[in-house]
Design brief:
single chain; elongated; alpha/beta; two-stranded antiparallel sheet
Length: 509
């Protein structure tokens, strides 16, 4: 049987019972669209890969299995939706055990071969295979799975989003060299981010994909790669994190040369597991601070950020496969009914967040900003808070935009009025000097350049360099008297200014 490495937070250690759940009992209300599904394999020729059980050690281009859920209006009356078993056949392929008999799936992959789990395999989903994509433009959700997990791990959520008018694309979480992650988590985090970027390029091949409205979504380890991908791909407009590891392993995130919390400038939502109980903290040697710390959330300053905690969900149940198949931990897990109810609300929050920021729906925005009770959520089920972006400092560029509109006239008055409204406003000497020189040596804007230098001289009255530049501007404009006056002032401030000495000798000869 394959043994799967797990993160500390998955907490599957002991005291298990078997859950009894179903897709129907999760009770997600689908939208107006039927859901189509495609699965195929692409290759990233820029990276190499070894199949883990190919003992010839042959290197190939990195395979990228692609799963896509989408709105469809082309479902034939006699069409049958795919089953949960069909999804697990994809898991089988992604684990590189394509030829494993289906009756061995539950024995082989992670989940107990119980009567309850056998029933799940027969359940029909809401997705129809290979149906045509509906006409129109649809926002895109690019999904990064949890640690070494399958592209289909959250299929119920994906079908739900697709029914409400989204295209969802996902690939499995694979290591850099092969199916398994190495011990170099920063490298694997970067690999997952590159996989996300590959999927963005892949979904762009579909004319129905609205590439101006892209969100990334990830569960557990996938949250790390999504943060990295957003900071370097400005077409990503929102981040949805399903108990993402960026909360628990912020130090890992900071090891990436691409990470900078200041670059997170799109709306961000993190939905976290419940507090880990003391018995689990002690028995599994987990740091109690994981219940409270969230360095990334605290560091985000340039975008709206939402922080939710689901008090009836442990980490595993932010995925469909976890809700359906995962053995329950009697030390901390809630009842099946409570788990399914919370998974439903997590899905509803994800949809409303996407509707608010990709579709600009006011009702959805109100929903994610409301207190949970205002949304009809039972008291104590969800904790919720959000913060607005901090006011950005008024920059030199902002000042210049206004100054240029008034043709660089009355600059000191403009500076004073802005300074009253934005006390942190700073106009660096070097910026003013460069702007003044650019303007003054253009015959059409020479007077404007002089105005910039006069402002700069008022703000920096002891700068020999500014008076030297002002003098050069007057000289260019053939105002000899003013040029001499300014060169003399520069020399007074810096007796070693050889340019001023030479210019004055030339002007007075």
């Amino acid at each position: 049987m394959i043994l799967r490495a797990v993160l500390i937070l998955i907490l599957f250690q002991a005291n298990h019972i078997f859950g009894q759940t179903s897709l129907k009992q999760i009770d997600l209300t689908h939208g107006k669209h039927k859901v189509g599904f495609l699965h195929y394999v692409m290759a990233d020729s820029t990276r190499t890969y070894n199949r883990i059980y190919d003992y010839t050690n042959t290197q190939i281009a990195r395979p990228i299995p692609v799963s896509i859920w989408y709105p469809t209006s082309q479902v034939a009356d006699n069409s049958e939706p795919i089953t949960v078993l069909n999804y697990l056949e994809i898991l089988k392929e992604e684990e590189e055990w394509e030829h494993l008999p289906n009756e061995q799936i539950l024995n082989w992959f992670y989940y107990a071969n119980t009567p309850e789990n056998q029933k799940h395999l027969k359940e029909k989903t809401s997705a129809y295979p290979k149906a045509g994509i509906a006409e129109g433009k649809f926002p895109v959700v690019v999904y990064a799975p949890s640690f070494q997990a399958s592209s289909i791990e959250n299929f119920a959520l994906f079908e739900y989003l697709a029914s409400h008018g989204y295209i969802v694309i996902a690939s499995p979480s694979r290591g850099t060299e092969n199916r398994w992650f190495s011990n170099n988590n920063p490298k694997e985090m970067e690999t997952q981010a590159r996989d996300v970027e590959f999927l963005i390029k892949e979904v762009a091949k579909f004319p129905q994909a609205d590439m101006d409205k892209i969100s990334v979504m990830g569960f557990s380890f996938g949250g790390l790669s999504n943060v990295l991908a957003q900071t370097r791909n400005k077409n990503i407009k929102a981040i949805v994190s399903l108990d993402g590891t960026e909360r628990y392993q912020y130090a890992l995130l900071t090891k990436s040369p691409f990470f900078d919390a200041a670059k997170i400038d799109v709306p961000y939502i993190h939905m976290a597991q419940k507090d880990i109980p003391e018995i689990v903290l002690n028995e599994d040697n987990i740091d109690a601070e994981l219940n409270t710390i969230f360095d990334l959330y605290d560091s985000i300053s340039n975008s709206k950020a939402y922080r939710l905690k689901f008090h009836d969900l442990t980490h595993s149940y932010f995925s469909t496969l976890g809700v359906l198949f995962q053995q329950r931990d009697t030390r901390q897990d809630k009842s099946d009914a409570e788990i399914m109810e919370s998974y439903k609300w997590a899905s509803i929050y994800a949809l409303n967040f996407l509707n608010a920021y990709l579709k600009n729906e006011d009702v959805a925005l109100a929903f994610i900003q409301n207190k949970p009770l205002e949304n009809g959520i039972e008291n104590g089920l969800v904790s919720h808070k959000f913060k607005e972006p901090e006011s950005e400092p008024y920059s030199f560029q902002d000042f210049n935009d206004l100054a240029s509109k008034q043709h660089y006239e009355n600059l000191y008055e403009l500076y004073q009025s802005l300074k009253r409204m934005h006390p942190s406003l700073a106009l660096p000497e070097g910026n003013l000097n460069t702007l003044g020189l650019q303007l003054v040596f253009n015959p059409e804007t020479s007077e404007q350049g002089i105005n910039v230098f006069l402002l700069a001289a008022k703000l920096y009255p002891n700068s020999a360099n500014l008076f030297d530049s002002l003098a050069e501007g007057y000289l260019f404009m053939r105002n000899k008297e003013k040029a001499i006056e300014s060169f003399e002032k520069s020399l007074e401030l810096n007796a070693q200014n050889q340019n001023a000495v030479e210019r004055l000798r030339q002007l007075k000869d």
